[in-house]
Amino acid sequence: MCRHNCRGRDAERHLWWTKEACHNSLAGEMLVGPASALFMDEISTGLDSSTTFQIVNSIWQYIYILCGTAVISLLQPAPETYDLFDDIILLSDGLIVYQGPREDVLTFFESVGFKCPERKGIADFLQEVTSRKDQKQYWA
Predict the structure, then answer these.
(1) Is the dihedral of CA 81, 62, 23, 71 positive or negative?
(2) Which residues form the ABC transporter family G domain (predicted)?
(3) Domain segments of the chain: what residues?
């Protein structure tokens, strides 16, 4: 048990390698076999936005070709990654705030009194409008 403990720089290298190994094996483990539904939780943790986009785009292509479904949870997706999704399930405090087509999400929030500023990214708006401390700035 103690032989696997790392300290100092060795611990930092081990942690980095462990994270990278997990992210690098994500596609290899998930895309083996004829899965028609994929469920992925926070696959972008520790990745830059470009890598996250590439992974989600690859998953989108896989799902499109095989007529499958993917449910992916992401924290703070970049606009180009957000645009890859057809439908959105937005949660706040464990409750569903919105579930439906990505194209209708702003219309929904406007109907309940929240307006996204023109220069604000939709994904950023969705994150902030579901936060009690940040949503006041979006009241229409």
Answers:
(1) positive
(2) 76-126
(3) 8-85, 87-140
